[in-house]
Amino acid sequence: MLRKSLLLCLFLAFWFAGGTSVFAQSPSVPVIKLPQLQKYLQSPSDTTYIINLWATWCKPCVEEIPHFEALQKQYAGKPVKVLLVSLDFAKDLDKKVIPFVQKRQLKSTVLLLDEPDYNSWIDAFDPAWSGALPATLFLNNAKQQRFFVEKPLTPALLQEYLSTKFSL
């Protein structure tokens, strides 16, 4: 009895102290369909959305994610929102995407788009998009601003696009 009480006390102390072990919460990565993503694509708000399409298996995608994380931090408190939209298979959420997010301690919103028929939705981002990754959509519907780029982005390019195309 004393042993169970001691274990319970240790568990509770660790839990309330914010320990990071097997008891720590996994990051939330919602699996969504296109209609849920379209709320951002069609949002009438004056928020500039930077929607990066990536996958854990895409080396240039993985290399540019820290740039988006830095951007999210730089514009914290301003009407700018970074969305990292994974195009990994939904079946890989627990074994690839969530561990990826945990390992890199991503703070931006991460979503997994579960739409395996790419030809049915890539035009929603840009009719000229070939489907190659990485790809990024910069969007502010209130200001009628939209810019799509289908290549890896450097911090300098991100800043250039935001300052010249969106006056941020």
Automatic annotation (TrEMBL):
CDD domains to which the protein is assigned, alphabetical:
TlpA_like_family
Swiss-Prot/TrEMBL keywords = Signal
InterPro entries xrefs: AhpC/TSA, Thioredoxin-like_sf, Thioredoxin_domain, Thioredoxin_ResA/DsbE_sf
Domain called Thioredoxin: residue spans? 23-154
Keyword ATP-binding listed: no
Stretches assigned to coiled coil: none
Pfam families found in the cross-reference section: AhpC-TSA
Q: What does UniProt give as the signal peptide span?
A: 1-24
- Protein's UniProt name: Thioredoxin domain-containing protein
